[in-house]
Amino acid sequence: MKNLMIILCIGFLLVGCQAIEEIPEGYYDYPRDDVEAAIATLSFDPNIPQFVPFPVEFIVSDRYHLTGTDQEAMDISFYSRQNDLLIYQVVDGETDQLINGEAVEIDSSITGAYADNDFAKTLLWKEDGLTYLLIFRSGIFDTEEVTTQVTKSDLIKVAQSFHS
């Protein structure tokens, strides 16, 4: 009986440690229940990020159809206390939406496009018949005072974390 308790305790510790290790240093968990509830209203089943690049203060979601099409879409906006914004957009189907940017590798089988301008950093990719978009905008526009510096590799790492 004592050995069984020890094995169970070790098992719980390993599972707990594994959950902690899923979020890399410098990335943050978010209220996943809010996102899962919003995703549940869709007629398709997109992947969601396992973490985001800043602490989330609140989440806003919007389900809609692309103008002039029957393609269902959803935007989920993650806001920080400093008003940093990460928009997660998913569209049911492939779109003709393009961004003028550089080709990037999400993983060995998925490529995307990345663009960075003074206003936002954008990553677009297509996977399993869906189109995904991540857009980061800093809450502070003075580049010397930016509280959260999200990079291209940060957005790619968030994209790599997606699963349903």
Essential attributes:
disordered N terminus; 32% strand; DUF4367 domain-containing protein; globular; Protein Transport Mog1p, Chain A; 7-stranded antiparallel β-sheet; 164 residues; alpha+beta
Explain what you see.
The protein has 164 residues and is α+β, with helices and mostly antiparallel strands. A hairpin with a 2-residue loop joins strand 6 and strand 7 (130-137). The chain contains 3 helices and 7 strands; from the N terminus they run H-H-E-E-E-E-E-E-E-H. The protein is globular and about 35 Å long. It has a single domain, classed as 3-Layer(aba) Sandwich (Protein Transport Mog1p, Chain A). The termini are far apart. It has a 7-stranded antiparallel beta sheet, covered by helices on one side. The chain is 23% helix and 32% strand. The model is unreliable at 1-21 (pLDDT under 50). This is DUF4367 domain-containing protein.
**What percentage of the residues does DSSP assign to strands (E)?**
25-35%
Number of domains: 1
Integer-rounded radius of gyration:
18 Å
Structural class estimated from helices and strands: alpha+beta
Named at the architecture level, the CATH assignment is 3-Layer(aba) Sandwich
Organism: Natronobacillus azotifigens
Protein name: DUF4367 domain-containing protein
Task: Please give a quick description of this structure.
This is DUF4367 domain-containing protein. By secondary structure, the chain is of the alpha+beta class. Helix content is 23%, strand content 32%.
Task: Give a topology summary.
Layout (H helix, E strand, L loop, with lengths): L1 H20 L10 H8 L18 E8 L6 E8 L5 E8 L9 E6 L2 E7 L4 E7 L2 E8 L14 H9 L4
Antiparallel strand pairs: 1-2, 2-3, 3-7, 4-5, 5-6, 6-7
